[in-house]
Amino acid sequence: MKKYITNIFVVLGILALSACSTSQSLQEYYVDNSENPNFISLDVPASILNLQEANLTKTQRQALESLKKLNV
């Protein structure tokens, strides 16, 4: 029984360590490139999407209403 529990903890430990990602997030990319003269970041109002007449579900409409600006 002890071996079984030990094996479970080893597997959980391996899963926990492998879940950590070393890839760069989108936020880190923006921060790292903000000083680069070839990098352009613009904030665009969400109203530019013009989706008022789109056929959206209630959940999609709530998500759309939560947008204030788009970063491109």
Layout of helices and strands, plus pairs?
Blueprint (H helix, E strand, L loop, with lengths): L1 H18 L6 H8 L9 E3 L12 H9 L2 E3 L1
Antiparallel strand pairs: 1-2
Low-confidence stretches: none
Radius of gyration: 22 Å
Secondary structure tally, helices: 3
Indicate the proportion of strand residues: 5-15%
Shape: flat
Structural class per helix/strand content? mainly alpha
What is the first-to-last residue Cα distance? 56 Å
Name the average pLDDT: 81
The strand count comes to 2
Fraction of residues in helix: 40-55%
* Element order: H for helix, E for strand: HHEHE
Mind describing the biggest β-sheet? 2 strands, antiparallel
Which strand order spans the largest sheet, edge to edge or round the barrel? Answer: 1-2
Task: Give a description of the structure.
By secondary structure, the chain is mainly alpha-helical. The protein has a domain at 40-72. It is built from three helices and two strands, in the order ααβαβ. The chain has a two-stranded antiparallel ribbon with strand order 1-2. The chain is flat and about 60 Å long. The N and C termini lie far apart (56 Å).
Distinctive features:
72 residues, mainly alpha, two-stranded antiparallel sheet, 2 strands, 49% helix, 8% strand, flat
State the gist of this model:
Helix content is 49%, strand content 8%. With 72 residues, the chain is mainly α.
